Request: fold
Amino acid sequence: GYHVYSPNLPWHEDGIQDSESKVAGMSILDYTDYLKDYIISLKLEKSPILIGHSMGGLLAQKLSAVIEASALVLLCPAQPWGINIITPTGVWTTFNVSAKWRFWGKSHRPTLYRAKYGIFNILDRETQIKVYDRLIPESGRAYFEIVFWFLDRQKATRVPTKEIATPILAIAGGKDRLIPPRIVKKIAKHYPKADYRCYPDQTHWLIDEPGSEVIVDDIDSWLKGKLEQDSRVTP
Reply:
């Protein structure tokens, strides 16, 4: 019963010439502006539900500060400015990125070995390779803004969390090695109306791995409960 829109970020589609060089300098601020304009262009009659995974979870948080949203669902989200995301397992997963000279000006993606370790750790080998082959290189600048936020003069990942009264569901995977549950829980505590849930057997790729169906059903139930309380939105 939902109308679903799944936009690609700039330079994030297969087959675009020079996409790796063009995506390299994209900022979280660029992505936020792009998605804001995209949502406005839809001319929706009712406030949208924003659902984001990983960096997309951070973008959903950023968008909630500049557009009216009826609810946010954050799946293993990256954190807003002021929360440390650096962990030993996270460093190991993305080490090939930060080890590059001037990584903030280049595009990147994790090696297959590190993706298997930190992102796809409960998928079978065949599925790991299949999903890995679909990964699009990401912006080194965006990576810098998320991980090394304390060095970012623009504070690109800053979100006025205490001012956002939108209902939020923050979801963590108990086996997530990139963004562990304690970080997601800390993110949830920054928002006045956030619920936190952790699925102990899931990883960072909880959007599409064994057990994902349970999470989808739980999200649907949570949304229906929240939307019933708000007469402005009907699923």
Summary: The chain is about 40% helix and 10% strand.
